[in-house]
Amino acid sequence: MIGQIVIWQVKEQKPFGYIVTNGKESALLHESQCEGELQVGDDVTVFLYHDHDGRMRATMKRPLITTTSYGWVDVVDVVPNLGVFVHIGIEKDILLSLDDLPSIPTLWPEKGDQLYCSLQVDKRGRLLAKLADEEAMKQISVPAPASAFNTNVRGRIYRLIKAGSFLITDVGYIGFIHESQRRREPRLGELVEGRVIAVKEDGTINVSLLPRKQESLQTDAETIYNYLESRGGAMPYSDKSDPEDIQARFHMSKAAFKRALGRLMKENKVYQQDGWTYIKGRDEK
Question: In this structure, how many other beta carbons lie within 10 angstroms of the beta carbon of residue 6?
């Protein structure tokens, strides 16, 4: 019964609400959870859940998800070593256990992210949120047309694997972001924007979070120049630096770094000397 919408009968009126029952079990329907005045004997449609003390409660407010239905819910709190809480449209927020979250805490959803979930009752009788599986995501998806190629898309990350991230776009395309097509790994539930780099026969898409080459060049040049300014106009990096060092500091490949540095040099904004890069005109040697 917990986590479901049921039709129960008003058994008794209390000063603070009503007792509703199915003949075998009873629950308190607090007056704050009612929609209008009720009479003993009325049939009422309620959602059943447990309060913070583990007692069965009823509400006439419609939840966004149940044990038999999925929906998008907002993450409202993150509790280390426990999980994240999602708002399902009733007074009590529901836990998505850390057992269902990425093993790396930085990939957990943050407050404001959204997850596609249903509800489940665990072995201890607790009502928990449950992430949608691949089949549930397919049911709300639509195939992408060939014309989607090279268009910009926006979507939510719903699954993480070692090789990359799965997302579903605003219009319902299921997409995959390979680890080579991002500068950092997005969080579960994060809203990301990218571009379609492939439309597959089954209507799914491959997405890149990397900017187009020209956009990337401008962005990378700004990143390097801003870093230079933050260090007073000098940095111990040049086109001879190790690729690993460049990736760790600037989150870009050495090839991208060299292109961006070349642009800055062509624009006469920077120069290199002895493995360092300097802003032009600042204590130039």
Answer: 15
- Continuous H helices in 124-212: 134-139
With CA atoms as reference, report the closest residue to 58 among 12, 14, 19: 19
Distances 281 to 10, 154, 224, 278 between C-alpha atoms, Å: 82, 42, 17, 9
pTM, to two decimals? 0.75
Coil, helix or strand at residue 116: strand
Domains of the chain: 5-59 (2.40.50.330), 71-132 (2.40.50.140), 141-208 (2.40.50.140), 213-279 (1.10.10.10)
- Helix, strand and coil percent figures for the chain, each rounded to 5: 20, 40, 40
| Residue 88 CA: distances (Å) to CA of 23, 63, 108, 274 | 28, 5, 19, 59
Tens digit of pLDDT at every position of the chain (285 positions): 899 999 999 999 998 999 999 999 999 999 999 988 899 999 999 999 998 888 899 999 999 999 999 999 999 999 999 999 999 999 999 999 999 999 999 999 999 999 999 999 998 888 999 999 999 999 999 999 999 999 999 999 999 999 999 999 999 999 999 998 998 999 999 999 999 999 999 999 999 998 776 667 888 899 999 999 999 999 999 999 999 999 999 988 898 899 999 999 999 999 999 999 999 886 654
